Amino acid sequence: MPTVSSEELAAAAGVNSAKLRKDFSYLGSYGTRGVGYDVEYLVYQISRELGLTQDWPVVIVGIGNLGAALANYGGFASRGFRVAALIDADPAMAGKPVAGIPVQHTDDLEKIIQDNGVSIGVIATPAGAAQPVCDRLVAAGVTSILNFAPTVLTVPDGVDVRKVDLSIELQILAFHEQRKAGEDHGGTVPPAAAHQEPGEQGPDGDVPAVMPA
Amino acid sequence: MPTVSSEELAAAAGVNSAKLRKDFSYLGSYGTRGVGYDVEYLVYQISRELGLTQDWPVVIVGIGNLGAALANYGGFASRGFRVAALIDADPAMAGKPVAGIPVQHTDDLEKIIQDNGVSIGVIATPAGAAQPVCDRLVAAGVTSILNFAPTVLTVPDGVDVRKVDLSIELQILAFHEQRKAGEDHGGTVPPAAAHQEPGEQGPDGDVPAVMPA
DNA sequence: ATGTCTTTGTGAACGCGTGCACAAAGATGG
DNA sequence: CCATCTTTGTGCACGCGTTCACAAAGACAT
Ligand SMILES: NC(=O)c1ccc[n+]([C@@H]2O[C@H](COP(=O)([O-])OP(=O)(O)OC[C@H]3O[C@@H](n4cnc5c(N)ncnc54)[C@H](O)[C@@H]3O)[C@@H](O)[C@H]2O)c1
Ligand SMILES: NC(=O)c1ccc[n+]([C@@H]2O[C@H](COP(=O)([O-])OP(=O)(O)OC[C@H]3O[C@@H](n4cnc5c(N)ncnc54)[C@H](O)[C@@H]3O)[C@@H](O)[C@H]2O)c1
Question: Is the terminal CB of chain B with fewer CB neighbours within 10 Å at N or C?
Fold first, then answer.
């Protein structure tokens, strides 16, 4: 039976082993003292807690450059997400297959959502169309939205929105980049914002997100 | 002179006004008591601190579906980032313009980086090519990398990596989605992971990032 | 069975970010 | 020039997540 110790996992993830053990403990006592965690069992338990054991139908709205790229992204399926439908407002696209899935027209948005029991929607339309599309998705029953358009969406309580903004990612890099240059800028900034720990990379607790476009 | 109070800004951003004031105080005392902050001046100061007042040349490596979408993204330029070059390994693409910029071959990667003084690189190649491409970028002088390939990159000290992973964004949504269903799952999970505050949306301090693909 | 050795699970201390509350600053009006 | 009112800047306290440290659990060898 292949096992891992919290120490090994912590080293690989670049975090503290005690923290890792405490986190796991919230899911239950799945470890064996003196041995470690059964890898297969642990992966299953975490997957289940994260909601990865069930199939999540997803719709993508706005099949332009970005939407098409997302539709083609294989990493979707490997984590339990299934592209249930592609939706676009352009009549010329209707019926045309992208990544093997025929694009459907926005007119049928509500029906598509309901027929497929979709609760997660991805918005990749131009900024101006994002809020209206969002409203229709929510009205049709979608309660989680991944937004790629550079707009802050307004949604009712109970609906989750996550915004992916490439510009902000680049800004964070530029911010650190500027510091590497070692210039003496006026203000003092708390060291907390300084750098990332080895092992972690990506959107973690970092940098506030307050700035207009 | 148009001004804003910390109270107004805090309400708009969905954060506490005291926190906002304290954050601003790290940049210096730019406010006027009894009045608020001079909007234009404040924006400039924050932009400067974030490194947005200077021009950041960026290269994108891997001009496939995603890379092309990124090259077309207008939000780039509006924040001070300039696409200095597009690079791909496919000889058939060399010279072909994408978003008005001719694609160049990976053979010239080092020269392109150096000629343009690029310090920020975007990787949108298949997963297998990401690490080798990363190594070449770093060797050529790039010290900040935005990685879209589903791989954890290994880099020397002093190089920053941010990974954008659509799957993880969807997993976070699915996790919360599962909870809304209100099912009684076995383990107890700390309420901290529960929900997002009104006003914030997107990659903030949330959810640990430990899980294999 | 008993002892030893490894690793978990967790109580307790620590540190840090967040929020409260208020004194000081400065604008504004009389 | 003084009084008043608004809003900043910040000391301080609270709360929460992280980390330390260790007792208990259990595997494994003798
Ligand atoms: N967040 C990021 O990092 C990032 C990166 C690139 C692009 N973007 C954004 O993603 C969005 C899409 O970018 P793109 O390059 O694919 O643009 P695009 O113009 O290529 O595609 C937009 C698509 O949306 C469709 N559309 C327009 N209105 C619609 C509506 N009301 N309902 C349904 N579909 C509609 C159009 O027909 C088009 O196919 C833009 O808002 C862009 O700013 C974000
Ligand atoms: N993070 C996300 O949310 C997300 C979303 C979609 C895709 N992706 C990932 O982004 C990457 C690109 O996706 P895509 O759909 O554009 O794939 P794609 O196959 O359309 O494009 C890949 C491009 O990279 C080029 N390439 C291959 N090897 C190269 C090398 N060594 N040097 C330079 N260029 C090279 C290819 O010629 C091709 O043009 C993949 O790794 C994919 O998994 C990530």
Answer: N
Q: How far is A191 from chain B (nearest CA, A)?
A: 11
B172-B173-B176 Cα angle (round to 5): 90
Query: Cβ of A173 under 8 Å from any chain B Cβ?
Result: yes
The answer to whether the C-beta of B79 is closer than 7 A to strand C is no
* Contact at CB, B50 and A75, closer than 8 angstroms: no
The full set of domain ranges for chain B reads: 3-49, 56-164, 166-213
* Nearest-by-Cβ selection for B143 from A73, A177, A210: A177
A7 Cβ contact partners less than 8 Å away, ≥ 6 residues apart: A17
pLDDT at A156 over 90: yes
Q: Which fold has domain B3-49?
A: Arc Repressor Mutant, subunit A (1.10.10)
At residue A25, φ and ψ (nearest 5 deg) are -65, -25
Report the C-alpha gap between B137 and B114 in whole angstroms.
10
pTM, two decimal places: 0.87
- DSSP reduced 3-state for B156: coil
In Å, what is the separation between the CA of A197 and the C1' of D25?
33
From chain A, the residues in CB contact with B9 under 8 A are 210
Which CATH number, 1.10.287.110, 3.40.50.80, 3.40.50.720, 1.20.810.10, labels domain A56-164? Answer: 3.40.50.720
The tens digit of pLDDT for each residue in A161-185 reads 999 988 889 998 998 898 887 655 4
